[in-house]
Amino acid sequence: MLEIKNLSRTFFPGTVNERKALRNINLTLGNGEFVTVIGSNGAGKSTVLNMVAGKLQPDAGTVAIDGKNVTKLADFRRAKYIGRVFQDPMAGTAPTMSIEENMALAYARGRFRGLGAGVGAKRRELFVEELKSLELGLENRLKTKVGLLSGGQRQALSLLMATFSEPKILLLDEHTAALDPQRAALVSRLTNQIVERHQLTTLMVTHNMEQALQLGTRLIMMHDGQIILDLDSEQKQQMTVKDLLGEFEKIKGAQLDDRTMLQ
């Protein structure tokens, strides 16, 4: 469970560049809830994720995971609660290490154990079974350097590894944005499968409104540091991209198109 209460953050306060990134944000995700987040550039989407991950500290407000206040907890100390996949496929893996070695590091994360002499037979068997679920043939390439994989393969691997530590919260930061449409569709499908299989509480930022409607059990729209729309599963299923744009215009009285949302 994730609870965000009265979260605020201002960048460059007291200067000509002052910008209120978050304005008293309140958001609760129940266990297993999958929330997609959309909004124009500068709406505060990634700032929220960085606050949850501990990369940024709020000026006011709190972040709690499973009832534990983690607001003041350093990012490396709350990492055991959080899995995260970034936009850049290069960010979640070590390119000079093999698939097996990357998976071993991810598996050891938060378990307070080293790699020992190497990956044992049982661990390797586990990795093979996990890779099979991706249906990309990577289970036959354990010794392949990750740097030789395609962007889609790397992002699928990053997604898989982010769940190894059985995180309380999974953060997805535009994790398909750098991929071509075919690979983005693949990673989206895998995202849905993995989140459902592990019943992960998930917060996913995306600029793709169709993706935001297709994935998840709930959708929120942000603008100017605020949540301006919150749709449950039933409401979301009845929505189209055109409907979302219309809701934005109705709430904010401003013109918005899908190109603006993709910036």
From TrEMBL:
GO terms for cellular component: plasma membrane. It is found in: Cell membrane. It is a peripheral membrane protein. It comes from the Bacteria. InterPro entries: AAA+_ATPase, ABC_transporter-like_ATP-bd, ABC_transporter-like_CS, ABC_transporter_ATP-bind, P-loop_NTPase. Its main location: membrane. Keywords: ATP-binding, Cell membrane, Membrane, Nucleotide-binding, Transport. Residues 2-249 form the ABC transporter domain. PROSITE patterns: ABC_TRANSPORTER_1, ABC_TRANSPORTER_2. GO terms for molecular function: ATP binding; ATP hydrolysis activity. Gene3D superfamilies: P-loop containing nucleotide triphosphate hydrolases (3.40.50.300). This is ATP-binding cassette domain-containing protein.
